[in-house]
Amino acid sequence: MRFEQHLSQQQKQTQKLAMTQQLQQSIKMLQFSTPELLSFLENKSLENPLLEVSTQIDDDDSSAYSRVSSSGDSTQDWLSQLPSTEESLFEYVIEQIHLNYRDTYLRQLTLYLVEFLDVNGYLTITLEQAMEQTQASYIELLDALRLLQVLDPAGIGARNLQECLMLQTERDDQAPVLTYIILEEFFEELADRKWPVIEKALDTTLIDIQEVFDYVQRLSPFPGARFGSISDAYIIPDLMVRQTESGLSIQSTKQGMPKVTFQENYFKRMSATGDPEVKNYLADRKKEFEWIQSGVDYRGDTILRIGEVIVKKQHQFFLDTTHPLVPMLMKDVATELDIHESTVSRCVNGKYLQTEFGVYELKTFFGVSLPSTSGDSAMSTEMIKRKVKEVVEQEDKSKPLSDQKIVELLKGQDITLSRRTVAKYRDELNIPSSSKRKRYEKK
């Protein structure tokens, strides 16, 4: 048997998508929120002397920082209502200690305990651990803790949620009479709604326990939280929808949006040097600027196009006071705009649309649909959740509806759901179970 090897040359033409670094960064720019995009461009400007980044400001457009009030007749400046965070919880407590207590050993122990407060105001060290580290007695540390706990905010220095609520109740003259003793002796029974046990032990009524429960829910479980960061307390919307005489109008917002500018004077001055290396460097930096500008423009145009489709398909949301949503999938928008579904997904996450009644993330307008039993048009999950919420709000609070009863009531409205689905939607709406919604009111 002879073995022969035949060699030949063939030329084939194939098409492949090469994920270059520039293409990867262009894709990332689509999913960046406005603050993330600004940070990205600022970093690029540090590397590219031809790229200048600025924030667009329009003095006539203050809508990005205000919202129409619920009454619809006035505009509020929400920025002016944001709490100041110049002083931290730690600094606030230290200042009170120095102002109220003499320089004694007990004050030193109090200052020591402040070092172990977390951002919510809770003490993260036990007195036994503090004894080992300070060589102080248990009584001395207990006295120091008491000095800490009488400071503001109420609840500071608590070692657990129960103690935090008790400290707040102790300083409130308007608290129901039985609140402190119930929190001290029957905290778990109150939380688990085992109220008959409390009723029997304290010889009281379920109505009085209901009053205590309502009061406790108004207390703050995190007394130090108001000193936290507010960096995400407000957002800058990417799109704005307004109702005009000719219909709904959508446009991109300019306020706070990053803008890239080419440094033409610097480019001409450096090009005049005649150095080949400098010219090659400038050519590369100019190309980088061009694709960055193209990416920013494409991002803005794509978000606007998606917003236009949202307004067209969800027009009743902007016109009807109940703000109903119809079923809409990202795939449908991608098909209409002739773009990939992943592009739509990247563009709607972290992007916001401002209306005359609030600000909404773009992905809010997307959702699957469920068919109705009457054969009418399908309903979105958001509309069904709203129906569940309406049923619960209209129930008799002394006899709250079970999940199965909600299923039956919705079926009468041509909405077919399983009990498990109702329980799922109820959890997503932060609605407690029927046993925890039961209220005891005076008749």
Automatic annotation (TrEMBL):
Keywords, sorted A to Z: DNA-binding, DNA-directed RNA polymerase, Nucleotidyltransferase, Sigma factor, Transcription, Transcription regulation, Transferase
GO molecular-function terms, A-Z: DNA binding; DNA-binding transcription activator activity; nucleotidyltransferase activity; sigma factor activity
UniProt xrefs under InterPro entries: RNA_pol_sigma_54, RNA_pol_sigma_54_core-bd, RNA_pol_sigma_54_DNA-bd, RpoN_core-bd_sf
Gene Ontology biological-process annotations: DNA-templated transcription initiation
PROSITE patterns in alphabetical order: SIGMA54_1, SIGMA54_2, SIGMA54_3
Keyword Transcription set for record: yes
GO cellular component: DNA-directed RNA polymerase complex
Superkingdom, taxonomy of origin: Bacteria
The family this protein is said to belong to: Belongs to the sigma-54 factor family.
Protein name: RNA polymerase sigma-54 factor
Record organism: Vagococcus penaei
